[in-house]
Specification:
This protein has 284 residues and is mainly α. It has helices at residues 15-29, 56-67, 82-104, 112-132, 134-170, 175-191, 195-213, 221-246, 251-271. It has 2 domains: 15-106, no CATH class; 131-271, no CATH class.
């Protein structure tokens, strides 16, 4: 019998690790220089953010990365997979809720079955809202078309890089500026490729919750999520426009993407008319 293959997935976090993460979060959150909620409506692009020093989420990510010996990526989790981080975050959230419940004298077990049933019903409702949204379908159509075009661009981008290198050797034109503009444009459109759809799904789901439960006096998460989606759309439009100037052979295909994004932008503004006025903590 062949030996069992060892799983490449790291083990689930222990109780001690979860408690340590909770202690770390409590300690970091006490810093008065932090901007409350700055991470709620950001674009998750920590490398380009000027507010990481005042962001609890960024600090927590760095702290847990150090604990796990994976300091390599800024704001990332090193060798840990995305889903492992999701599981760890969920476990941390549960531990924080348990701690707060004990402080308040709340028995979480007494209503466990009812809470679980309500959670399942809520998840079904929100999933239906997200997947049935016209904004979701439009955003999905955009990223699928954009991803296809980006794949087709690879050979031409390679040729363009070689041509720019030749220009640099000959001292002709402005190859460094063109290369930087191309690189930045590609970085932007790829960073926001799936982000737009994810934030619009959150905006739609949050709006469903507001309609069902009523307002709570806090700024609308639906508008905040729509706001950062609009920011991502705006930046993507600008990036594609710059790429179009450098890639005339794909001008028509890029124009199609620009039209898709402009229609999506207008649709979001119609669906969430207060989104543009939403003030994101630390950014607006």
């Amino acid at each position: 019998m062949p030996p069992k293959r060892k799983s490449s997935r790291p083990p689930a976090p222990s109780e001690a690790e979860i408690d340590r993460d909770a202690d770390t979060l409590d300690h970091l959150a006490a810093d008065p220089t932090l901007i409350s909620g700055v991470y709620n409506y950001c674009d998750r692009w920590c490398e380009r953010c000027a507010l990481t020093a005042r962001c609890l989420s960024f600090r927590m990510d760095r702290a847990t990365a150090r604990h796990r010996g994976a300091e390599g990526k800024e704001g990332g989790a090193g060798v840990q997979s995305f889903w492992d981080d999701i599981a760890r975050s969920f476990a941390l959230a549960q531990r924080l809720v348990e701690r707060e419940a004990r402080k308040q004298g709340i028995d979480l077990d007494s209503a466990g079955a009812l809470i679980a049933a309500e959670r399942e019903e809520r998840e079904r409702r929100l999933l239906a809202a997200r997947q049935g949204s016209a904004l979701h379908h439009a955003a999905t159509a955009y990223w699928k078309s954009a991803r296809t075009l980006l794949e087709h661009l690879r050979p031409e981008l390679s040729d363009t890089a070689a041509a720019l290198q030749t220009q640099a050797q000959l001292g002709a034109g402005h190859p460094a500026e063109v290369a930087a503009d191309l690189g930045d444009g590609l970085d932007v459109v790829q960073w926001y490729l799936f982000f737009i759809d994810a934030k619009l799904q959150r905006a739609v789901a949050s709006r469903v919750e507001i309609v069902r439960d009523g307002g709570d006096g806090f700024p609308s998460d639906a508008d905040g999520s729509a706001k950062i989606a609009l920011v991502a759309i705006d930046r993507s439009i600008g990036a594609w426009a710059r790429l179009r100037a450098h890639l005339p052979g794909h001008a028509d295909a890029i124009l199609d993407l620009l039209v898709r994004l402009e229609r999506l932008r207008r649709a979001v503004e119609r669906e969430f008319p207060a989104a543009r006025a939403f003030r994101r903590p630390g950014f607006d």
